[in-house]
Amino acid sequence: MGNPHNRKFKCWAAACGNCGEGPSAEHLVSKCLFPEGVVRVSGFDWCKQEAKSIGINGLQRQILCKAHNSALSDADSEAKKAVGLFQRSATPTKDGSLGDNKIDGQKLERWLLKTAINLSYGGNLHIGIGMNGSMPGLPSPYLIDVAFGRRSFSHLMGVHFLLPDKATSHSPSEIIMFPLIKDGNIGGFYFELRSQPVFLNLFPGHAPPTLGAVAEKLGLQQALLDAKMVYRPPQIATISNSMPTSLIKLKW
Ligand SMILES: [Zn+2]
Ligand SMILES: [Zn+2]
């Protein structure tokens, strides 16, 4: 099942209509966000056995039509801005103002979701738990609607920010993403967006108190497994050398 290279082209948003302009070469993970970067992925059909580090250009597939691909570009821009803020270690000014430090959280969620779908498309796992119309390797109509901003996540689905109380280390040029899998279903995705870890929850009505509570053997640092998870926080502080350096405000 599964080498996406061998599939006949089918846009993953086709179930909700409005495809157009033929196939596009979508980067599974937006190139504009990580131009020099390496993405470390694991747990998907095409990299099941071990974590794979892949140059960003190696992560391109024909999985979205041009019309749907360009309808996601506002989510790409917001994610780019968010990642820029997450990695910034600016010195705060006296009044704490740092220019434009506001993120549209729902657009960031849409980017996380579409990236999660990109990586899972054509595999043998259900994307999300208990969703109407879900088929292995295909997003449900609900998830397609959320990805394109036609509806918003509810029931604790969406982004939970991990707020570790100890310092954690992150490779500056690498991002990490993997699904949390149970019984053939992807219950959520873990992302490290530079220095900010987040969990995209796709299990309606359920949210783990910590990542360590749902999966012990993730190969993550203990401080990340133990980190408090906060659903859609209105603001987060970025930390550098144990000092809060900037405040990021999130609109939901
Ligand atoms: Zn399409
Ligand atoms: Zn691209």
Automatic annotation (TrEMBL):
Name recorded for this polypeptide = HNH endonuclease
Q: What is the lineage of its organism?
A: Bacteria, Pseudomonadati, Pseudomonadota, Betaproteobacteria, Burkholderiales
